[in-house]
User: Which sequence fits this backbone?
């Protein structure tokens, strides 16, 4: 019979001021990316609700209207493409024609790792799935 022993270690982070600034910048980028992704999902959901309500107002039963209306909710690949489109090419000014969002909404995004954005988009996808599952239970 073998016994498995688990050991826990605690480490304290003691970043330099420059490292602390980098950590805060990455955390801020991830927060912005999560909120941006969630905002895109909420906008798609609002569009779906508006279309369902229009059908209900025209006399279609709500359950039928809910099944009929299809509005794609953007997921990580779509949101990543959108971010790349609004980031544009830093060598070119002004920003590309047709870019969505304000010019330079996040001037710091070239200073952080792309993983801060990618993980936030994945987290937003999971949060959206959790919310849909929660609302499906009638909570």
Assistant:
């Amino acid at each position: 019979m073998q016994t498995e022993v688990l050991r826990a270690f605690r480490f304290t982070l003691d970043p330099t001021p420059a490292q602390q600034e980098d950590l805060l910048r990455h955390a801020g980028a991830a927060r912005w990316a999560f909120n941006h992704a969630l905002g895109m999902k909420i906008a798609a959901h609002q569009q779906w609700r508006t279309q369902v309500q229009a059908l209900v107002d025209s006399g279609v039963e709500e359950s039928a209207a809910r099944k009929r209306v299809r509005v794609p909710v953007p997921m990580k690949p779509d949101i990543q493409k959108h971010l790349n489109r609004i980031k544009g090419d830093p060598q070119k000014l002004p920003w590309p024609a047709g870019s969505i969002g304000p010019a330079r909404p996040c001037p710091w995004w070239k200073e952080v790792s792309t993983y801060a954005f990618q993980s936030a988009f994945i987290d937003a996808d999971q949060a959206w799935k959790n919310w849909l599952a929660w609302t499906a239970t009638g909570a």
The chain has a mean pLDDT of 85. Residues 17-57 form the longest helix (41 residues). The chain has four helices and no strands. The radius of gyration is 21 Å.
